[in-house]
Specification:
80% helix, mainly alpha, 200 residues
Length: 200
């Protein structure tokens, strides 16, 4: 099934929307109500993404799954620790998958980001290593913040700190992507090459 490329604002809305819901509900009520609202918003975002694009990114599926599991534990056990440690689990999982893949000579960053560009093998390795370190750093940062700061500060960081940090890091990778970018082979070039081979 073909994937429809969504408008960048739609993609941003599905990623940032649930976090804003989490922040807003937490400010008006408290963390446990916000956790329930966050779970509903995450599911709604994934459904909206599938309806519009006929596809849900791997990262969104993994994140949504972990949110539902740890959100349920938070509500059932009435322990906010689970929802606070959830980002650490997600970032740690991403770092482990990317870093572990590199150890076996595989770059899973293309799958994780739906391969939005074509790079040389060297480019993929470098980019994968950088993102693995970024996710590891984010896992550590989340642990530091939720253990040392107030719940409101942690929620605000999730809503207004995580997305800017991630987007900023992604932008910083553009020189690397340009350096190792490979132009996709056009249909005309493929046909011409095939014609040359047949003539030979």
């Amino acid at each position: 099934m073909d994937k429809t490329q969504p408008h960048p604002l739609f993609k941003l809305a599905t990623e940032l929307g649930p976090l804003l819901v989490f922040f807003g509900v937490n400010a008006k009520f408290q963390l446990f109500v916000a956790t329930g609202a966050f779970m509903v918003a995450i599911v709604a975002a994934m459904v909206a993404c599938y309806v519009v694009t006929k596809h849900v990114p791997i990262m969104a599926l993994v994140t949504g799954g972990v949110v539902l599991v740890f959100g349920t534990l938070t509500l059932v056990l009435h322990d906010e620790t689970f929802i606070k440690v959830k980002p650490t689990i997600i970032y740690g999982l991403f770092a482990a998958v990317l870093g572990g893949g590199l150890l076996f000579g595989r770059s899973f960053i293309a799958v994780m980001f739906d391969q939005m560009f074509n790079l040389t093998p060297t480019g993929w390795r470098i980019l994968t290593g950088r993102w693995a370190l970024f996710f590891l750093a984010m896992a550590i940062l989340n642990e530091v913040i939720w253990r040392t700061q107030s719940t409101d500060f942690w929620v605000a960081f999730k809503a207004f700190g995580v997305i800017p940090l991630t987007m900023g890091f992604a932008i910083l990778q553009m020189p690397l992507i340009k350096r190792y970018h490979i132009e996709p082979v056009s249909l005309e070039a493929s046909e011409a090459e095939a014609g040359d081979v047949s003539k030979g």
